[in-house]
Amino acid sequence: MSMSSPVTKNVPLSTQIADQLRERIASGELPVGSRLPTEAELVETLGVSRNSVREATRSLVHSGLLVSRAGDGTYVRAQSELGPALQRRAERGRTDDVIEVRSMFERFGAGAAALHATDDDIAAMRAALIRRNEAQDAVEHVASDLQFHRAVMDASGNALAAELYRNLHDIEAHLLRVTPTGGDLTDFLSRIRSLNAAHDRLLEAIEAHDPETAERIAGDLVAEAHALDAIEGEDAR
Predict the structure, then answer these.
(1) d(CA 131, CA 147)
(2) Cα dihedral sign for 135, 137, 140, 141?
(3) How many CB atoms lie within 10 A of CB 173?
(4) Residues 125, 201 contacting (CB under 8 angstroms)
(5) b/e burial code for range 174-199 (CB count within 10 A of at least 16 → b)
(6) Phi-psi region of 157 (alpha: psi -120 to 50; beta: other; left: phi over 0)
(7) If we measure between CA atoms, which residue out of 149, 131, 150 comes closest to residue 141?
(8) Residues 153 and 208 sit within 8 Å (Cβ to Cβ)
(9) CB under 8 Å to 219, separation ≥6 — which residues?
(10) DSSP character for 47?
(11) CB 3.0–4.6 Å: which of 27, 90, 109, 218 could bond 153 by disulfide?
(12) For the chain, what is the radius of gyration of the CA atoms?
């Protein structure tokens, strides 16, 4: 990991160290799940005191970017501080509030993607959709489904919206979840067949540069996925 000794005047050393760590996490140099260098290693690399390193890591733990595991070390918990903050707030809200926000994101992303998607964007969506439609198990289906929706949002041309969307990972996984809590794979695949067709139509609308149709289909998809999720919940009881 490349880090340099803090040099900015009038800015606390701990703040400069935290900023460097934050940048490396955001860039992927320190991916989620990776272990930070030890406190002693950071002290030696940066030429600063233990207290400065400790304050820097403590501030990032407090913000949710890092997690400290006693006797094991400090690990990267999220790619940005936005994710944990949004998740905490969403968990305090009504389920319907979360669904409405999700629907807003989906409609905006689909409409904007229809206007701005490049050939590479379309190719990324199509590849994810093929994996989704051909998935042979629930885990693969959900993973490729999320990948497709993220590709749509990335194609919107709005980097802030894409980041907000990505940082709602746990919430979007719940809202898009059609993984069965009971029953067999055949029943599961039968239930999500209508969603497969709707996803195909969404990609067609984006590729045709038809934002109105894309927005409508995206909104319908959220409602249909939520209805399916509710059915799964009833079946599990």
Answers:
(1) 10
(2) positive
(3) 14
(4) no
(5) bbbbbebeeeeeeebbebbeebbeeb
(6) left
(7) 131
(8) no
(9) 103, 106, 107
(10) T
(11) 109
(12) 21
Distance CA 98, CA 95 (A): 5
Per residue of the chain (237 residues), give pLDDT as tens.
566 666 666 888 999 999 999 988 888 888 888 999 999 999 998 889 999 999 999 999 998 889 999 889 999 988 887 777 777 777 676 667 777 888 899 999 999 999 999 999 999 999 999 998 888 777 788 788 889 999 999 999 999 888 888 776 555 554 444 444 444 556 666 666 668 889 999 999 999 999 999 999 999 888 887 676 555 544 444
CA-CA distance, 76 to 67, in Å (whole number)? Answer: 6
User: Do residues 237 and 181 make contact, with C-beta atoms less than 8 angstroms apart?
Assistant: no
Cα–Cα distance for residue pair 76/60, rounded to 1 Å: 9
CA angle 91, 227, 180 (to 5 degrees): 80
* pTM as predicted: 0.67
Going by C-alpha positions, the residue among 103, 25, 93, 102 that lies closest to residue 64 is 25
Residue with tokens 């599990």: 236
Q: How far apart, in whole angstroms, are the C-alpha atoms of residue 229 and residue 181? A: 10
